[in-house]
């Protein structure tokens, strides 16, 4: 890769934004999530908009979401907050002296991707670093790879997808861009009851406490694991849903399938318990519901848990129902309990530590799963069509899985996951099910 240039792009405002200058405390949802930058990569074949058009659109889009142009700071209690100071977004521009076709095949990179997005700041430099960092990689053929990295405590996956759509619209529409008006009141998403009354156990679920499972952390995880992509076609998904036999979402049926295959590959003992940490968007589940266009974090987790023998032996329908029942428990009552729990902890002066995994976590016998199937990353169009590939690179934790809408298989789904080097993915394409007993 040739020498790159970098600049800090500041948002363009017609009038000052109402939250400009504010020190915005992290909500309990922000504090429960991953304390990391999350990279994603979008690939576009030529022709593509010039960098100047992309940067102009970016400045207009960031003005709509000013938290992304801010910086982490520390408040009077010693807690992290977002200072909406309009310091800007880091943009790096690089020229790559090869054709895009030589590095991307069938929607996947055949070369390392770690130079395609800005280097992640070390932990001691997070405070003061740009919360949104972008790298525009221009290839000899005219193709474009956008490396996008944002801090998770500033925005969850749903918010990131919304921002990307806004950026793409700003580039396409230019001076005629019509800015949306997202809901930005973070404090309104975490209002405790007059008398906070947590009724569920949030220690070991969202925050560390007694009795939580601990996992091994590998000092050099990428030497022990590999990132692989399994591509499920629309036909495979239809056949899988028919096997389930009841109405179910694409995510639930594919997760049941992946749970079965990973459990078999790991060779777990039949009586050993295995659970899945499933991210759940809580916007519509809260009472009152939080607007769908809320920008920030509004995710909790469901934890379906079964013995390995049941994961393998139950029918697909039984495993799907176990997943669905666990997700259904993340309801308005649970969400309010979570918020109340945080309020009680704050009143007691307690500093909570999130259970969100650190890089290098080896989850076996468990899994952690995120879904971007509703985010439409595969439709982000800057003016010359949708991406030819969308990649979540360098997953650092064994057993981490992400479901993505496929850019190459119409109606299909890509499952990106981090698995041990000696595991094979061939069985993921098979619906063979050695059923020990039935759970209907």
Automatic annotation (TrEMBL):
Gene3D superfamilies: Chloramphenicol acetyltransferase-like domain
Pfam families associated with the record: Transferase (PF02458)
Keywords: Acyltransferase, Transferase
GO MF annotation: an example: acyltransferase activity, transferring groups other than amino-acyl groups
Entries under InterPro entries matching the protein: CAT-like_dom_sf, Plant_Fungal_Acyltransferase
Keyword Acyltransferase applies: yes
Keyword Signal: no
Lineage top rank: taxon: Eukaryota
Family designation: Belongs to the plant acyltransferase family.
Name used for this protein in its record: Uncharacterized protein
Organism, as annotated: Hordeum vulgare subsp. vulgare (Domesticated barley)
High-level lineage: Eukaryota, Viridiplantae, Streptophyta, Embryophyta, Tracheophyta
């Amino acid at each position: 890769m040739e020498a790159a240039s970098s600049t800090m792009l500041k948002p363009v405002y017609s009038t000052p934004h109402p939250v400009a200058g504010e020190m915005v405390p992290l909500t309990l949802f922000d504090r429960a999530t991953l304390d990391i930058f999350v990279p994603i990569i979008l690939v576009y074949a030529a022709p593509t908009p010039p960098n100047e058009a992309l940067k102009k659109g970016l400045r207009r889009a960031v003005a709509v979401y000013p938290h992304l142009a801010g910086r982490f700071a520390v408040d009077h209690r010693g807690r992290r907050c977002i200072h909406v100071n309009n310091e800007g977004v880091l943009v790096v521009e690089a020229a790559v002296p090869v054709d895009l076709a030589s590095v991307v095949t069938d929607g996947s990179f055949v070369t390392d991707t770690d130079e395609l997005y800005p280097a992640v700041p070390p932990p001691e430099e997070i405070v003061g670093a740009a919360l949104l960092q972008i790298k525009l990689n221009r290839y000899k053929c005219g193709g474009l790879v956008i490396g996008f990295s944002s801090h998770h405590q500033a925005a969850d996956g749903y918010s990131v997808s919304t921002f990307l759509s806004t950026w793409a619209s700003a580039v396409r529409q230019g001076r005629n861009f019509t800015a949306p008006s997202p809901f930005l009141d973070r404090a309104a998403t975490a209002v405790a009851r007059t008398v906070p009354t947590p009724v569920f156990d949030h220690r070991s679920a969202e925050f560390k406490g007694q009795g939580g499972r601990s996992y091994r952390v590998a000092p050099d995880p990428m030497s022990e694991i590999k990132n692989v992509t399994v591509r499920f076609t629309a036909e495979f998904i239809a056949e899988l849903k028919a096997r389930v036999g009841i109405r179910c979402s694409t995510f639930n049926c594919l997760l049941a399938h992946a749970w079965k295959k990973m459990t078999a590959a790991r060779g777990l003992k039949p009586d050993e318990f295995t659970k899945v940490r499933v991210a759940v968007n809580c916007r519509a589940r809260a009472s009152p519901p939080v607007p769908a266009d809320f920008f920030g974090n509004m995710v909790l987790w469901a934890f379906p848990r079964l013995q390995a023998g049941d994961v393998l032996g139950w029918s697909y329908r039984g495993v799907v129902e176990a997943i669905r029942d666990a997700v259904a428990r993340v309801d308005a009552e649970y969400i309010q309990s979570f918020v109340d729990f945080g309020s009680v902890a704050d009143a007691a002066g307690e500093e909570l530590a999130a259970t969100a995994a650190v890089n290098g976590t080896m989850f076996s016998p468990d899994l952690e799963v995120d879904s971007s199937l509703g985010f439409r990353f595969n439709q982000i169009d800057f003016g010359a069509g949708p991406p030819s590939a969308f990649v979540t690179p360098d997953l650092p934790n064994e057993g981490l899985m992400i479901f993505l809408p496929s850019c190459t298989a119409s109606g299909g789904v890509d499952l990106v996951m981090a698995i041990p080097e000696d595991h094979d993915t061939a069985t993921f394409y098979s619906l063979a099910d050695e059923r020990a007993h039935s759970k209907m």
